[in-house]
Amino acid sequence: MLRYLPFLLIIALTIYAFIDCLNTPEEEVKHLPKVVWVLIILLFSIVGPVVWLFAGKKRVASGGGRGPRGRTQWVAPDDNPEFLKSLRDEQKKDRDQGPGTDKGDPQP
User: Fold this and answer.
1) Residues 9-35 pLDDT 10s
2) What 3-state DSSP class applies to 73?
3) Is residue 80 included in any domain, yes or no?
4) Region label for 90, one of left (φ > 0), alpha (ψ between -120 and 50) or beta (otherwise)
5) How far apart are CA 102 and CA 95, in angstroms?
6) Could you report how far apart the first and last alpha carbons of the chain are, in Å?
7) How many domains does the chain have?
């Protein structure tokens, strides 16, 4: 069983790199077209996936807030100022409508 481990690791690495390459948007692929990267990953079983993982795509810098090109990271609702503002606006709108105009109350 142990003698199959290197073969299984190479297969797993190749599958991971192949799927990662296919799911990467074209504008995030570096150096070569995406089709060429797919061929390199599939033809060169060990070197291709490793080169893809280290040099094939732009890596997003870790950290909070906004990432490269203005992309936002996911924020929990209680930490998201836009979500909290929408809740305050909804509460204000409900207060302005007054009692008896609640959505759940039947209207005569």
Assistant:
1) 999 999 999 999 999 888 888 888 889
2) coil
3) no
4) alpha
5) 10
6) 76
7) 1
Does residue 83 sit within a domain?
no
For residue 28, the enclosing domain spans: 1-58
Amino acid at site 10: I
Q: Cα(73)–Cα(65) distance, rounded to whole angstroms?
A: 6
CA 62/CA 78 separation, integer angstroms: 21
- For 1-23, b/e burial (b = at least 16 CB within 10 A) is eeeeeeeeeeeebbeebbebbee
Decide which of 77 and 64 is more confident. 77
pTM, to two decimals = 0.54
Taking residue 41's Cβ as centre, other Cβ atoms within 10 Å add up to 27
66 beta partners:
72
Secondary structure of residue 97 in the 3-state scheme: helix
Q: 65 or 17: which carries more pLDDT confidence?
A: 17
The answer to whether position 9 is within a domain reads: yes
Residue 39, in any domain of the structure: yes
The whole-angstrom separation of Cα 26 and Cα 57 is: 9
